[in-house]
Structure formats: C-alpha cells, structure tokens
Write a structure and sequence with these properties.
- By secondary structure, this protein is of the alpha+beta class.
- It has five helices and six strands.
- It has a four-stranded mixed β-sheet. It has a two-stranded antiparallel ribbon with strand order 1-2.
- The radius of gyration is 15 Å and the shape is globular.
- The mean pLDDT is 92.
Length: 139
Amino acid sequence: MILRPDKNFKPCASDVDDELFPNGIFVFNITKMLDYIGTHPEDFPIEEVPVASLGFTSQRLDEATVSKADLTKPLLLAEIAPGQFNVIDGNHRLEKARREGATLLPVWRVGPRVHTRFLISSESYREYVSYWNSKVRGH
C-alpha cells in the first residue's frame, strides 16, 4: 500500500504531560494515540501475541516502572514498515513479562494511516511517507 501525502497534514499537538515516543526522526504522541484508540475500540481489537515475537526498542528502562508495570494493559505496536510492527508503548511491560516468563501479551496494532496522524512535526510526516513508500517499492 503506497501512502499518498496529505497536503493538509497538521502535526499532532502535544501538551506538556503527553508521552512522546521518538523512533529516529519519527516522533509519535503516544498519549493522543491511546486516547484515539480508547474512543474507537471497535477499530483496534486486542490481540494476544507471543512475547518472544516482540522486539525490544529501549535499553534504558526505569526499574521501578518495570516492577509496577500492568501486564493486562495492551502494548501499542505500530507498523513502521510494511508487515513490521515495533513496540512504541509498553517496553516496561514487555520487560516485566520477559522477567516473569509470560508467554503472551495483549497488544493493539496500529497501521500507518492511523499512526501518522500522531506524528508531531510536518518534517517527520514527510520523511515517514517517503520512508514507507521506499519500503513498499523495495528500495
């Protein structure tokens, strides 16, 4: 699926307390994305996926946050390249699950038509569309 650039794209506004997830130049507003999922639950069914299939994206985790992580709260997986989903919210839960030997975790999957709405800059959006389309075309 080729992404067509939206000439009217508006970066997602960020409030002071919003959680942001940087993935290189791509910075997503996690707080606003989770709010959107919460108001559209029918579009985001919760799936159970094997812990072993989930990649790890952060090396610096706060131990107190790991210990109090709620393994019943779904992780957020964004399709960063065609067919490739990365954890963009839930690394502390994923680490706790690994330590406790959990085999499955609940997740929400979010494709690019949704998650690009939560990029916080126009530059990030343009670069993402170009990146995605290069992956689709195999370059």
